[in-house]
């Protein structure tokens, strides 16, 4: 909603720039998509490593 309101203000102040932004936004979103997917994959691997590292402590806590 905030992006839309900022775009509306830009449309009022400088409509050619707002139209260029409207056209280029999906292109930038597509260009950045692989980095988002990579970030999700790296986050998942780091969570897996953290779970493996903390597994002994959780097992000992469960025995006591």
Report on this model:
The protein starts with a helix and ends with a helix. It has 2 helices and no strands. The protein has one domain. The longest helix is centred in the middle third of the chain and has 49 residues. It is 95% helix and 0% strand. Helix 1 runs antiparallel to helix 2. The protein has 64 residues and is mostly helical. The model has no long low-confidence stretch (mean pLDDT 92). It is elongated, with a radius of gyration of 22 Å.
Determine the N-to-C terminus distance.
50 Å
Secondary-structure class? mainly alpha
Strand proportion = under 5%
Which shape, going by the Cα principal axes? elongated
Compute the number of structural domains: 1
Mean pLDDT rating: 92
Order of helix and strand elements from N to C terminus: HH
Number of discrete helical segments: 2
Please name the defining characteristics of this protein:
0% strand
How is the secondary structure organized here?
Elements: H1 2-13, H2 15-63
Helix pairs in contact: 1-2
What does this entry show, briefly?
The protein has 64 residues and is mostly helical. The protein is built from 2 helices and no strands.
